[in-house]
Amino acid sequence: MTTLILVRHGRTPANREGILAGWTPGVHLDEVGIVQAAKAAARLANLPIKAVVTSPLDRTVETAKAIIGDRDIPLENDERIGECHYGEWTGRPLSELAKEPMWKVVQSQPSAAVFPGDDGESITQMAHRAIASVHHWNAHFGADGMYVMVSHGDVIKAIVSDALGAHLDLFQRVQIDPCSISVIEYTPGRPFAIHINDTGSDLSRLIPKKKSRRARKGDAVVGGGAG
Question: In CATH, which of 1.20.1290.10, 3.40.50.1240, 1.10.8.420, 3.40.50.1370 is domain 2-221?
Fold first, then answer.
């Protein structure tokens, strides 16, 4: 079983002011975001994390470094979990974008949404690259691996929706707040969403427990009951 811990970056001035930052460089955590990242780091401090994989954007790297702290954990950079390329929407206020015809498509049928401009990306493309990244790192860290992935709201919503078996058009039903933690356990049979948008619960249950030989033989049926 591979355990993926998804963390959205902490709050930024763009979040505070309602601006769609996208891939704009130089968007850093604000004073609230720094505190949020520290709290997330404290919640993850006792878990046997093998690595932290981050989007290359400033706000995610800062959050990832806060999570690592002084621990000897590798920091991996992966553009596939970078923010969606919003094209001509980048840097614009959400209140203004909400008046655009494409806004309704983004909210009600995101799989059909393609952002305008030469560097605009579709939400479907974003979802495909993010999920491909998860499959890559799951294979890299192996069946007993536990790792953190620091990314962005829409990217995490797409990954969570995939784990739940939900169509991408339903991904707006998933709420992902700054520095929230979502946990997915990937087994050979199917993934299990253990936490979604969690901002305060005890995560100690994620610490692997030593199993007896008898318990290991019964692993295949865990979660398969009708209760």
Answer: 3.40.50.1240
Strand pairing category for 146-151 and 52-54: parallel
Which pTM was predicted? 0.90
pLDDT, one tens digit per residue, over 113-146 is 999 999 999 999 999 999 999 999 999 999 999 9
